[in-house]
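Propose amino acids for all 152 sites.
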């Protein structure tokens, strides 16, 4: 799943507010869905610090910058959202992807670029993510209706 915001919405205030809405109204988790600059900078600071940071995105030469990670790592581009929706998706990824899908439906996709965004429709996500939730003993309907209280 890849969601690209339209260019006019790729700005820090909009992205920060959107992530807050996804967390509070759509019950996504607390990790930002659409990458804001401050979050990318936190990742860069971590990657450039100490031994633990060296293991994080280890194949990217140091010092790491926001520009370098956004060019080299597609899932860390500014103003985009990426999620694994395949066989190896986690429960946390499934809940977050469903929150983003519900927001797209409610806003009639007016904020996203449909020519670049992929795999964000309910049919595709239900086919792939309901299994992840069910295998973890979570009722997919509870997540899709926003009535599931997750543990993180």
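Proposal:
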């Amino acid at each position: 799943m890849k969601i690209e915001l339209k260019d006019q919405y790729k700005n820090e205030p909009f992205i920060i507010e959107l992530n807050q809405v996804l967390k509070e109204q759509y019950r996504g988790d607390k990790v930002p869905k659409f990458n804001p600059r401050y979050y990318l900078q936190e990742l860069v600071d971590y990657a450039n610090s100490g031994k633990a940071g060296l293991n994080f995105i280890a194949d990217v030469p140091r010092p790491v910058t926001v520009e370098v990670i956004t060019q080299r790592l597609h899932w860390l581009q500014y103003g985009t959202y990426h999620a694994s929706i395949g066989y190896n998706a986690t429960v946390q990824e499934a809940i977050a992807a469903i929150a983003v899908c519900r927001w797209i439906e409610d806003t009639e996709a007016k904020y996203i670029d449909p020519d670049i965004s992929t795999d964000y429709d309910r049919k595709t996500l239900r086919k792939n993510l309901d299994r992840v939730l069910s295998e973890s003993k979570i009722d997919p309907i509870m997540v899709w209706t926003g009535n599931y209280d997750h543990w993180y």
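Residues 63 and 142 are 44 Å apart (CA to CA). The two ends are 22 Å apart (CA to CA).
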